[in-house]
Specification:
elongated, five-stranded antiparallel beta sheet, 21 helices, disordered N terminus, 45% helix, alpha+beta, 21 strands, six-stranded antiparallel beta sheet
Length: 730
């Protein structure tokens, strides 16, 4: 007798595929909630995903009788039209005709927001503020993502859909060096199985796609496994670029980093000076009323140096050498002292910005860098700096307009008794350090944990905050006095360790010694740093020529602990900094991460990796149970799937009897057990009403055991972990 011809699969329903596409896009969207602060962007992005799925399903339903290519084109055009209208209503209704129809002004506004969003992403660190620009960028980005997933599933390009959704979802964790999102990996694994199920039910393409499909599943598991396992390995900070990493970019949103309960060693340095210098990552001179942005100026290869010194005779100079080794920072900017003149030990890809003496790269990472900086600093006397006006700087933008009146009023009030620009700045510095207090918690509690003009006004009223508030307030108040000012982002000087390199002490800089401070440009002298932050460092001060001034000058505001280079375990960051437990001692000590995220990440990776095997094992258990009650078709399906998993030759056109004869002759299967299975299949397939027969689980187990024993152990393991029977086939 011939086997009954299987019923062809039904044509796919557009609604089911659209729902799955929307769900896959929303799952891919979830990890971005950890990279961007809560805001309207989640609603906008989610709405665009739903609109893309619904419009695609409607278009395919209306064009069901058309050819496949025409259906896809109709769906794409309708999706783009509906998404354009939806995006206009949600993001730029004020520029649209009747609030719905986009205009040229709509396109211009969206373009400006996208440009600003790119700047916010490139210049910020996670979590990024949920601005209107980020809302626009995320809404448009996930509109594109939703359309692509929808069309990949509609065309049954299962492998590409699995790979695309996995990559989109993993991007925030890969780029921000964040912790592994255990729940997302688990949910993504479920979504992959649903996508594979869709392919298994409706994909009638060639079986050659199956290895690619399984490769996508294994690739997803490999991503999860690498993210989870890499941080747990015991790494020595003596190895460049290893150990816990903190991502640092050029911005002033340092609050979350400063509030970490425990810091990690960011870098070590050795200097010929009597005290370690401040290290700068970037300077920010452009203020738009809300955000201070990094400078943009001429760049040159770092081996060409930084050009001429910004100070002139008769201003004296002091030269030092600083060797720096980055061990726990991932950044596209190098920490360097002011004013760097020559850097050795760097590879290609690093570029110098002469106007602000910083170093950055579009291709390199600071992690593991080991380099030496030749630096020189101006050393004016008190008389010289008092006679120099605060003017003449390049790069600095015009003072911000529409500042809260309190900023200018306080600046004039505090400096009313001063006669020179330098004395006015010293008065500001003294006022901040004596009238304010340093706190990491007050900004959060009072809702002004930011750098905009309104946050500065709030800080001036509350008089409690941390370095960015002190630096931002000092800078805006100096601007109201018509002085060129900028803010520097970098590190406080390190803490002395017991280690020495030759005769010089090794200093360790912790990740929670991130800092910001203002600099003001004096004509003929250059940029002079000030330290307004209460309890941190020592205020800037120059001595008169009669007292021996001009022979020493700070490279930046000096820390209170810098006067003595003796070994110390206390941080140079003030009393409110929580450095206890940080590894600021021997740089070669082994360091491990908190095991909790590693365990959770490892569990997530293991679940993803073993999920196909678990699904296959559950399927076998259910079929064996049915076979125990005489369900011959379930027993025969389990036999067929086992043959596929073991990679044994099989033809779909074979009858049950032919297949049984092949298994007996080629694989040594028990003929009596196979006869019971074949007899049950034939009676169940062709009898109109056939009650369940005898227990078929015993002969089925006997045949399965013989087939598995006839192949190698490696093939048996592969069949368990990577069951091919779960994949689409004819």
């Amino acid at each position: 007798m011939a086997e009954r011809t299987p019923t062809p699969p039904r044509a796919p329903r557009p609604g089911g595929a659209a729902i799955l596409a929307a769900a896959a896009a929303l799952v891919a969207l979830w990890p971005y909630t950890g990279a961007i602060l809560p805001g309207a962007w989640t609603f906008v992005a989610g709405a665009m995903v739903v609109v893309a799925a619904v419009s695609g399903a409607v278009a395919r339903a209306l064009s069901a009788r058309a050819r496949s290519g025409a259906r896809s084109l109709t769906a794409l055009l309708l999706q783009l039209l509906v998404l354009a209208v939806t995006g206009t209503v949600l993001l730029a209704a004020e520029t649209a005709r009747f609030g719905v129809v986009p205009t040229a002004a709509t396109a211009q506004l969206v373009g400006l927001r996208l440009q600003r969003a790119l700047e916010e992403i490139s210049e910020g660190v996670a979590p990024i503020a949920a601005t209107a620009s980020m809302t626009t960028a995320m809404g448009l980005a996930f509109a594109v993502v939703a359309v692509l997933i929808d069309h990949l599933l509609a065309q049954r390009l299962i492998m590409l859909a699995v790979l695309f959704t996995s990559v989109v979802g993993a991007v925030p964790m890969l780029l921000s060096f964040g912790s592994v999102n255990f729940a997302w990996f688990l949910l993504q694994a479920v979504m992959i199985l649903l996508i594979l199920r869709l392919g298994a039910r409706h994909d009638r393409d060639s079986p050659r796609h199956s290895p690619l499909l399984m490769g996508s599943v294994i690739g997803t598991a490999a991503i999860a496994l690498s993210l989870a396992v890499a941080p747990v390995l015991p790494l020595s900070s003596a190895l460049p670029g290893t150990g816990p990493m903190m991502t640092v970019s050029a911005n002033l949103r340092l609050g979350d980093d400063l509030r970490r309960p425990e810091g990690v060693e960011a870098l070590t340095l050795v200097t010929s000076a009597s005290a370690p210098p401040y290290l700068r990552l970037a300077t920010l001179s452009r203020f738009d009323g809300d955000i201070w942005r990094p400078d943009r100026s001429e760049q040159r290869p770092v081996d060409e140096g930084f050009g001429d010194r910004p100070w002139r005779d008769p201003i004296g100079s002091i030269e030092h050498e600083v060797s720096i080794r980055v061990v726990g920072v991932s950044s596209d900017r190098l920490p360097v002292p002011y004013a760097a003149e020559r850097i050795t030990g760097l590879g290609r890809g690093w570029r110098a910005m002469p106007l602000n003496r910083t170093v950055l790269s579009a291709t390199e990472d600071a992690a593991g860098a080991d380099y030496t900086v030749q630096m020189a600093v101006p050393a004016p006397t008190l008389e010289q700096i008092r006679s120099a006006p605060a003017a003449g700087a390049e790069l600095v933008s015009a003072p911000a307009v529409d500042l809260p009146p309190v900023i200018g009023e306080l600046a004039r009030e505090v400096t009313a008794a001063a006669d020179t620009d330098y004395d006015r700045l010293i008065a500001l510095q003294t006022w901040f350090r004596s009238e304010f207090e340093y706190s990491l918690d007050a900004p959060v509690e009072d809702g002004f944990d930011g750098t905009g003009a309104d946050a500065v006004a709030e800080f001036l009223e509350v008089r409690s905050g941390y370095c960015i508030h002190f630096a931002g307030a000092f800078a805006l108040m100096a601007q109201t006095l018509d002085m060129p000012v900028r803010i520097v982002v970098g590190y406080l000087p390190g803490t002395a360790t017991d280690e020495k390199r030759g005769d010089d002490r090794v200093y360790s800089v912790s990740s929670d010694q991130l800092h910001s401070w203002p600099e003001v440009f004096f004509s003929g002298i250059g940029w002079v740093p000030f330290e307004p932050t209460a309890t941190l460092g020592t205020p800037t001060e120059f001595a008169s020529a009669a007292a021996g001034g001009g022979g020493e000058a700070p490279t930046a505001p000096q820390p209170s602990s810098a006067a003595s280079p003796a070994p110390s375990s206390s941080p140079g960051a003030g009393p409110d900094r929580r450095d206890e437990g940080a590894d600021t001692g021997n740089g070669a000590a082994l360091r491990r991460l908190d095991p909790t995220p590693v365990v959770l990440g490892g569990a997530a990776a293991l679940i993803v990796l073993l999920l196909p095997a678990v699904v296959r094992a559950v399927r076998r258990m259910r079929r064996l149970e049915r076979a125990r009650h005489g369900d011959a078709l379930s027993a025969w399906q389990e036999l067929t799937d086992t043959i596929i998993d073991l990679g044994l030759p099989m033809h779909e056109a074979e009858t049950a009897r032919v297949r049984a004869r092949v298994l007996v002759d080629a694989r040594g299967a028990d003929p009596d057990a196979l006869h019971m299975l074949v007899d049950g299949v034939e009676r169940r397939s062709y009898a109109e009403r056939m009650p369940d027969g005898d227990d078929l689980s015993a002969p089925l187990k006997q045949v399965l055991a013989r087939l598995e024993a006839g192949v190698s152990g490696r093939r048996r393991l592969t069949a368990r972990l990577v069951p091919r029977s779960l994949l689409p086939r004819r």
